[in-house]
Every structure is written in C-alpha cells, then in structure tokens.
Amino acid sequence: MKKFVTILLATVVLLAGFTFAETKGKIAVVISTLNNPWFVVLADTAKERAQELGYEVTVFDSQNDTAKESTHFDTIIAAGFQAILFNPTDADGSIANVRRAKDAGIPVFCIDRGINARGLAVSQIYSDNYYGGVLVGEYFVKFMKEKLKSDKIPYAELLGILSAQPTWDRSNGFHSVVDKYGEFTMVAQQSAEFDRDTGFKVTEQILQAHPEIKAIWCGNDAMALGALMAIEAAGRKDIYVFGFDGAEDVIYAINEGRQIAATIMQFPKLMSRLAAEWADQYLRGERQFPEIVPVTVELVSQENIQKYAPYGRK
Fold first, then answer.
1. Which residues of the chain have pLDDT under 70?
2. Dihedral angle at the C-alpha atoms of 192, 193, 194, 199, nearest 10 degrees?
3. What GO cellular component is one of the record's annotations (predicted)?
C-alpha cells in the first residue's frame, strides 16, 4: 500500500509539472482564410510549434473578412492572450487591429502577409514576393519562347485579392521582367481573389473573350488550379499555367506533366515556426527582433521537381 501511494504521489507531481510546462500562456493564431490548403498548413504549423513550446493555442479563421478579423481581435484582447501570430486579411485594413493589440500589450508577429505600417507588429515574416514574381517572370519568358517560337505571345493574368500586399508584389515582380519583351502581350488581367473556384470561373470567361491566349500567370496556386481545370475542361492543350505557392496539388500536377509549367515555392512551415519561436522568446523577455523579414522563395518546374515536396523541399 505504501509503495502504491508513493507511486501515485510521484505520478501526480509529474503530471502537475507537465501541465504547468504545457500551459505557459495563450497564443492566438489568426489566419486570413482556412478555405485554402496553403493557409491550413500555415495555421497548423504555427499551432503545432507554439504548443510544442508550451502554450495553449486557439486558431481563428477570418474568412477573408476584415470585419471578422476585427471581431477576433476583440475576443483575443478580452480573453487575455499573450501573443498573436497573425496572417492579415488586408495590408491597410488590418493596421487598426494590430494597433489595438499593441496598445493592449499583446505582441503581434505577422506571417506570410504584412501590413502597410511600421512600428506596430513586432516582426513581419513573409515571402520575398517581388523576387518570386521576378523568378517566375524569367522562367515564363524562357519557357514560352521555347514552346512557341513566335513574335506574338498573348497571355492573361489572374490577380489575387486586390487589397493584399502579396498580390501586387508578385505581379509587379513578374511585369518587371516580362514587360521588357515586346512579343508578350497581356490581353486580360482580372482578380480571382486567390480562390480556386473563382479562378475556374474567371478563366472560363477569359477563354471565351480571348481564345488566342497561350498562357495564364496566376498570383497563387489555388487560382492556378482553377485555371488548369477550366483549360482542361475546354480541351485546350496549347495553354500553359504558371503559379505561386508550392501547394500540394500543383506540385503533383507539375510532377505529372500537366499544363502547369512552374510555380514559386514558398516555405509556410518555416515562416510559422519562426513566428511561434520569436513569440516565445518575446514572452521570455527578448526584445531585439528585425521588423521586416523577407523569406527566400524558389522556382519549381519539371526540370527540378524531384527536389520538392508540397510546401517545401523534400
């Protein structure tokens, strides 16, 4: 009986210590949308790493709605969360939410997307989207010129959410290269809101209005998949798609030799882990963090697909 009681007490002490170690505080993960597998990876990785570091974690889905995002911040501030790992819905519209969190003493670490303000978030960790646009633009020119050998190459562009910072960084990087070549003509440019279904519908419309196009450059992989579906449904084997993300279905499509010629690999797991680790360091007293952290990106095509898995290198 004494032995049993001793073991029981020891177990209680161990469990109490484990519980204490696993609940250092509460961290919120606020994601622009969970209706895209790429952002699910971003959220799940942030949650997993913060939990490993000993925090209770709650994930909030803003559903691409700044009003919902604002409500989430109200809840987070009232509930006394210690830190926020934040994927903004709007580069301008999200500024007020970050300011309110800072005023409440809650550090914010932006992941994947930033806000158009300095001095509010502790750090903004996001892909070097402009450089990614340059990379895909260079490959786009090389690939299409080799495929068509023509002095006229009409193409379309699917933009993401117009208020999101990555939309224009990626587009501007792409055009900084492609616009130098006179044989390339953009005959359509339309937002498909970073969404697969919208990408499908917009591409259907573009194919009807501009059947002459030979390529579609898409600001993310969800739209690229929608565009691919519309192209395949139309039986158009002469149109190539270019994306941006390194999402699972696109990596498989490139590997299978379908009409997605290339994508840009982002590293969402790296960004989320870093944000969680820096939040932990901040809560333990560290205050020296770089405010803007551009994370490198890499071009993925059929030439090097063997090196890559969804959302990162193999």
1. 1-22
2. -20
3. cell envelope
Question: Strand, coil or helix: what is 96?
Answer: helix
Is 33 within 8 Å of 39 (Cβ atoms)? yes
d(CA 237, CA 228): 10
Beta-carbon contacts of residue 275 (< 8 Å; ≥ 6 apart): 46, 85, 109, 110, 111, 123, 125
Report pLDDT digits (tens) over 271-282: 999 999 999 999
Distance of CA 8 to the CA centre of its chain: 48
Give the closest residue to 265 by CA, choosing from 242, 246, 243: 246
**Sign of the torsion formed by the C-alpha atoms of 240, 246, 248 and 254:** positive
DSSP per-residue string spanning 228-240: HHHHHHTT-TT-E
Write down the residue that tokens 């498909």 correspond to: 192
Site of tokens 């952290």 = 293
Domains of the chain: 26-125+269-293 (3.40.50.2300), 129-267+302-312 (3.40.50.2300)
**Among 81, 78, 55, 65, which residue's Cα sits nearest to residue 31?**
65
Closest by CA position to 30, among listed 134, 108, 82, 91: 108
In the structure encoding, which two tokens stand for residue 125, read together? 């960790």
**Do residues 106 and 82 lie in contact, with contact meaning Cβ atoms separated by under 8 Å?**
yes
Task: Please write the tens of the pLDDT for every residue from 31-65.
Answer: 999 999 999 999 999 999 999 999 999 999 999 99
